[in-house]
Amino acid sequence: MQGGSRRWAYYSVGILILTLGVALSIKARLGTGPFDALLVGLHERIGLTVGAWEIIAGLLLVLLNGAIGREKPDYAALLTALLTGGCIDFWLFAIGDGLDSASLAARLALLAAGFFIAGFGIAVHLQGHVALGPIDRSMMVIHKLTGWNIAISRAIVSTLLLLLALAFSGPIGIGTVLFTLLSGAVISMFIPYVAARPNPHAKA
């Protein structure tokens, strides 16, 4: 696979995977990632779909990341927000309401699956180097400015988003704790296994 096509494959497949994880964690109803909890809270209190709020919040974060990083806003990140928002709505529609009556054990399994699937999807998505999502851009801005590792940088971003999710009555629970404290570590764990490697048969 040629370099450009390979990058886009990582990028698009990563988004599909991570948004499936997000949708599963939302459907588990045991708390989801801080950003997703904020989106669900906005959806339930104001209206619009979860995916639509992903796009709106993405635009605001693009502007904020540019200001914090003292650089031109990465408007390419809006592409990721658009695709992510659309895919979240797609997965939520595809999953439907069939899991609403699931047992606690089934919901815990659903949450665990969503947690690891989302982390794996982000790790794959980052290998594309096409356009980071607004949240991932925030993580990398903090990492660049402070020198702290990805796990710590992600935890800081997640904590700030958690406070916003609480303000909008988003779904907070055990899943939120997992995503806030451990998502960065899970992403870091998967990166070595999905890291894009140069094709030894490719022409220079």
- Average pLDDT reading: 84
General shape:
globular
Q: Give the tally of structural domains.
A: 1
- Report the portion of residues in β strands: under 5%
Count of extended strands: 0
Q: How much helix, percentage-wise, in residues? A: over 70%
> Could you list the spans in which at least 5 consecutive residues all have pLDDT below 50?
198-204
**Secondary-structure element pattern, one letter each:** HHHHHHHH
Task: Round the Cα radius of gyration to an integer and report it.
Answer: 17 Å
Question: What does this protein look like?
Answer:
There is one protein chain. This protein has eight helices and no strands. The chain is mainly α and 204 residues long. The radius of gyration is 17 Å and the shape is globular. The two termini are 14 Å apart.
Q: Which helices and strands occur, and which strands form pairs?
A:
Layout: H1 3-28, H2 34-45, H3 50-69, H4 77-95, H5 104-126, H6 134-146, H7 150-167, H8 174-194
A few lines on this structure:
By secondary structure, the protein is an all-alpha fold. Helices cover 75% and strands 0% of the residues. The chain is built from eight helices and no strands.
